[in-house]
Amino acid sequence: MAITFGADPDGQPDTPRTPGSATYHELSQPTALYNWEIGLHSVLLAVDRFFATQQFDEALQVARLVFDPSSETCFYRHDNPNSPLYWTFAQSCWKFPPFQGIAISIQERQKVDIKLGDLAKDSNFNLAIMERRSHGALVHATARGRPEANMKWIVMKYAEILIAAGDAHFRQGTLESLPLAIQRYVEAGHILGPEPPKVPKLGNKKPRTFANLSQEDAQLELGLPFSSQLKKGTQQQLDADPKGEQRVCYLRTTYFCVPLNPKLKQLRSLLNERLYNIRNSLDIQGRPVTYALIEPLIDPGALMAPGMGMSEAISVALGDQNSPLPCQRFEFLLHRALDLCSELRSLGERLLAATERKENESFSALRQRHAVAIQKMMLDIKNLQLKEAQQAIDSLLINRESQVSQLKFYLALVGEPESIIPTSTSNWEDIAQNIDTPTKDDLRMSSYEKMEMDMTTAASLLNTVAAGIDGLVGPLCAIPEIETMGAPMGVGASVTVGGQNIAMMTSAGSTYLKMMAMMSGDEAGQASRKAQLVRQLQDRRMQANIHGREIKSIDKQIEMQKIRVQSAQHEIKMQHAEIEDAIQAEKWYRTKYTNKQLYSWMEKSLRSLYYQAYILALNTARKAESSLSFEQGRKISLLRPGGYWDSSHDGLLAADHLHLDLKRLETADYDAQDHDFEVSKTISLRQIDPLALLSLRLNGSASFSLNESLFDMDFPGHYMRRIRSVAVYIPAVVGPHTNINATLQLTSHRYRVSASASKAAEYMAQDKDSFRTDHIPISAVAISGGAGDTGVFDLTFSGPKYMPFEGAGVISTWRLDLPTEIRKFDYESISGVLIHFQYTAQEGGALLRAAANEAVRSTSKAIKTEGTQDGFWAMFDPKNDFVNEWYGFSSRLIAAKKNGSEETTSKMELGNLKDRLPFWSRQQAKLEVRDIVWVSQSSKLVNGVAIQGVSRPDDGSIKTEALGKCTTATWKDLHVRSLDKWAVEASTSVLDENDEAVDNIYMLIHYVFQ
């Protein structure tokens, strides 16, 4: 049996023909609607529901039943099965047969120009307009006439699902999930295709009416170059660019045009933003992010947490573990998450209420439809009842005729006239009965029955006596006979007396009795017959009376049935009215504003809003959890890794479960509020890394590191050292109204989280379990003052946001950048950089204190350990630190150069340099200089300088490097144990011919304690 989809190419039902030659309408045939519902609308509904519940893979799988852009279809013609025909992508991607034909039709229409007149003649086009006007509020009615709208919706929904799936992978923030996100985004880009070309604006368009447009032909004729009104002119070049190289594009447009689809434009814009972020190391919000090469270990307990079903992916359990830390504090985020949780609960209640209302409206509409059907069925029942009443009247009339016939029969038997038969309006008078008074005994017999009983009893007695007499005849016959003869006068008679004579006389008496008994029996029979006839007459009269009364009863029943007929007719009229009322009520339920469609729309919208609010609340809760973990310096996992959304119940209790876990986070914060040491420390860049200070002076940029020993010298045994604030001091010579502008950036940091080290080797080991690195919210600030500048206007720790560098470890690497394009002051006037740290720490105990002290001693003795700095540094600026000595030193060199003395040597006394070291360095009994680094813009000066009292290494062992515009020369492995009476020497050979001053030179010494 062929499956029809409502194709009507020539006004005929579906026939096997080439796709594209027919137009499709789901209401054109009875079975087409069901096929469209099964093949398209049910699929679209499932896709929309899966997408609403964030089941992207299932949504794509179902969507591919209609639209599969990854397929390549080959089909065979119905007229030639051996000839395969491959479809292009435009047709093969559509799995729904009508869309395949429509795709071909679209391609065919693109090859020809469509005129407005052709559209006016198109019956399908007119039908679509009629449906649109008839069902203005029903978008599906419009889509019936334009199936291309459904096709566009599917394509946009498919791309939207791909982008949403990519966002889900992008939000995980791991190197494993980024390729999956890119794959989804690229696939969505292929679906959306390239952006349409930007058409240049044609200028202001003059509004025109239909009357103006209808005169186009006449205006064209007037504009032709054959008019006599035109003046003859000379030939000229009409096109200054005959090759068309300067033309932007050719436009073939009409006055009316179709604007771009805003949904497609929005999807393309969102896709471009996502691809730009993911390809430029930005997170989904556009913030810079650095992804770890090695992901953190998976917590097996997190996968077994409540709410994690088998359908939950491991990626969901990992969540946003590498996402940037929020800028807000835990307390603020907790209150915000609780507020969102309350709003989420309210939305859940509204969603449940909307669902209940939708179901109530559906039930009310269904009940009303059933009421209409029931009322129609009741009308049928009423009609049947009317028919039944009418047939009952006919039946009663027939029954009355039967009763009249029987009454006539009985009246004839009793001898009564037929005139007494009652009519429908007359009454029946019973025939009188003559009944004798019955006997008083138990039998209550009539007189004839009494006579019959008496005569029967008498006859029975007579027969009994006669029988007894007959019994004596035999014995009497045995009596002998006695004969007596008397013959007087010869004439006589003989008399014989004997048994025979007596027996005969006895038998004669018996016969007489029998005769009397027979007479009594005859009288009894006559009495019985009379009693029977009397009873028969009485019975016939009674039957006549019964039938007469039955006739009147039937008359009454006929009257009742007539009343019932009238009642049924009235009920039928009422039923028609009830049906009309039910139809109007059903129509009202169907067309009222607060109907099922409204609540379905509300339910769908609220479900989407509810899930978005859930995601917002969950993300805020996870941010609060991350903030709590960040503030406490340990991993806290109290929220369910898989979330709280139960798709089978629309996540209705997600807010309650989330609220409970938020309260657990609040309790965990209260339980862990221990006292921390609050420490302040000022670090001089000149003391810890003078080479970085020189780089800042010369190049405007410096990178430096702070090791743990700098802080262990102050408080050995502390751990969990975390920055609260950083202030920068840059002393320099600047002009009036000139700011010192710089950017301070934290490039890396860590802090010790374990206090288990008991020896220096364990303390100095770079064990990853002993240190922790967090993603801090603010890792760079802009310095605009240079005098205790923290990078913020109001340094407060009670606000909702973290301060710059708050929470970072003091074991850190920094970068300080000054503007390099335009220098507003002389960077070489920077005497140093002071960084003031405020940090918190915890006491690690005696063992950790001993290990820290031993590690500090090892560092001061330059015992090399991986990741630690060897010894200490000091920088001397002779031009600024030894002003008088430098002036004499440089003046003598310049004077000797002018006098032509080539080998004149100038000396600059430095005195005891140990007095210029920090106090804690001066207190050390034994100090040894390991290396000396010279830095100057003059390469001759760094290579020609010497120190009196220090053996200059061979030229081959001196390491020379470039530092921006400067040159550095490093003297290594000196082992000089005295800093007293040092003098810098240089000859005039370090100067060029045109030098009028000696370039400044910096001396950096690297020393250790013995």
TrEMBL record:
<feature type="region of interest" description="Disordered">
    <location>
        <begin position="1"/>
        <end position="24"/>
    </location>
</feature>
<dbReference type="Pfam" id="PF18276">
    <property type="entry name" value="TcA_TcB_BD"/>
</dbReference>
<feature type="coiled-coil region">
    <location>
        <begin position="379"/>
        <end position="406"/>
    </location>
</feature>
<keyword id="KW-0175">Coiled coil</keyword>
<dbReference type="InterPro" id="IPR040840">
    <property type="entry name" value="TcA_TcB_BD"/>
</dbReference>
<feature type="coiled-coil region">
    <location>
        <begin position="551"/>
        <end position="585"/>
    </location>
</feature>
<protein>
    <recommendedName>
        <fullName>Tc toxin complex TcA C-terminal TcB-binding domain-containing protein</fullName>
    </recommendedName>
</protein>
<feature type="domain" description="Tc toxin complex TcA C-terminal TcB-binding">
    <location>
        <begin position="556"/>
        <end position="841"/>
    </location>
</feature>
